[in-house]
Automatic annotation (TrEMBL):
Pfam families: NnrU
Keywords: Membrane, Transmembrane, Transmembrane helix
Transmembrane stretches, start-end: 40-60, 72-94, 114-141, 166-187
InterPro entries registered for this protein in UniProt: NnrU_dom
NnrU domain segment(s): 3-190
CC annotations in GO: membrane
Subcellular location as annotated: Membrane
Membrane topology: Multi-pass membrane protein
Stretches of the chain forming a coiled coil according to its record: none
Organism per entry: Blastochloris tepida
Stated name of the protein: NnrU domain-containing protein
């Protein structure tokens, strides 16, 4: 699990920097005061972390997952159900007039939290707890941080919009695609036994 843990650290550390403004400022200064250089380094570290997460989790699974607890069968059904609103919320991310965006405020963080919670409930091994627990903790922390920093929230469109309809349709189609094959193709684990294999 060493690669997985290292990947999580490299992935989340840069994402947490905006909540520590003095430290971020010192890092920018150390890079010559150039924001573009800072952003390039930030992106490189995040991408390295993401690659290590993928490789590390794959190695962990191949070596034999470490059980911590056995989730009840119903958690799998709950996770499957939770992923539908997660996809719909993710689909509401584009900056356009949307009631969903206005109500949720920060769709990406909401989608991450739902996704992480769903997978955390359905997986009881150590690697999954580390992976999805980290994403859930980050989502909660960053949402609180965003609220405290007073970042601009989406405007109220005054009602349901075309963008909301598109988000619901796109999110549902993505959910169905993952349900019937994409998850197995991408992750190597079928959502429904015998479907998409």
């Amino acid at each position: 699990m060493t690669l997985l843990v290292l990947g999580l650290v490299l992935f989340f550390a840069p994402h947490l920097l905006p909540t520590f403004r003095p430290l971020r400022g010192r890092l920018v200064a150390a890079l010559g005061g150039n924001e573009n250089v800072y952003k390039a380094v930030h992106g490189a570290v995040v991408m390295t972390g993401l690659v290590l997460i993928v490789v590390g989790f794959g190695d962990y699974r191949a070596a034999g997952m470490i059980p911590v607890w056995t989730p009840p069968v119903w958690t799998q059904h709950l996770a499957l159900t939770l992923m539908l609103p997660s996809f719909i919320v993710f689909a509401a991310m584009p900056p356009r007039p949307s009631l969903l965006r206005y109500r949720i405020k920060h769709p990406m963080l909401a989608g991450i939290k739902i996704w992480a919670l769903a997978h955390l409930l359905a997986n009881g091994d150590l690697g999954s707890i580390a992976l999805f627990g980290s994403f859930l903790a980050f989502g909660v922390y960053d949402r609180i941080s965003v609220k405290r920093r007073g970042l601009k929230v989406p405007d109220n469109p005054g009602g349901w919009t075309r963008a909301d309809t598109i988000s619901v349709i796109a999110g549902t189609l993505l959910w169905l695609a993952f349900l019937f094959g994409v998850h197995h193709w991408l992750i190597g684990v079928p959502v429904l036994p015998g479907v998409g294999a």
